[in-house]
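FIELD: query
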Amino acid sequence: MSTIKKTMEEEAEAIWMRFIDGDRSVFTFIYNSNVDALFSYGMKLNSNKSFVKDCIQDVFLDIYEHRKQISRPKNIKFYLFKALKHTMFRELKKERKKSGLPEQGNLSFFTEYNIETITINKEVIKHQKKLVTKIIKELTPKQQEILYLRFMKGFNYIEISEITGINHNSVRKQVYRSIKNIRKNLLLNNITNSGIYSFLLVAFPD
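FIELD: result
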């Protein structure tokens, strides 16, 4: 384990211990540090703002009420992302049951790729806008979600596996296939591999 990673885990553990002890300022810090990222991810799973906000509130209320029973997470952001997806899935399941609609197995990740609403970096040339739309349409919702969690939120394969409920080997394969497809499309359009990260920033705006 790298020194940096070990230090981050130790800091997370220290923060969580203060939270368990009832330090409201730490709870506020955890909330403020993660709520925007959680909202961004939640909106990519469901476009209903009120529903997403309610689920985020449920997550924080739940962890506060059960803080003494929750095992100490090494990565607080990972824990919250996983909890949010679980909460959204649970609440949607309840709503479908009440309305008599058939249950769906998974939340479907989507990202906004309407070119008129995307803010593009000045360095990204105009024809890349159309390329973003084309390539994103070729990826499945699950591939989009995995790429977003891996490259935009920095989760590792095991963490992504737990958030999405997909075997971590399958997660690796999905990332490899998706990047291979993106790289192929970029090269076909005479854009170097260095453009991949810029592409992802455009494809997955927060």
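FIELD: remark
The two ends are 30 Å apart (CA to CA).
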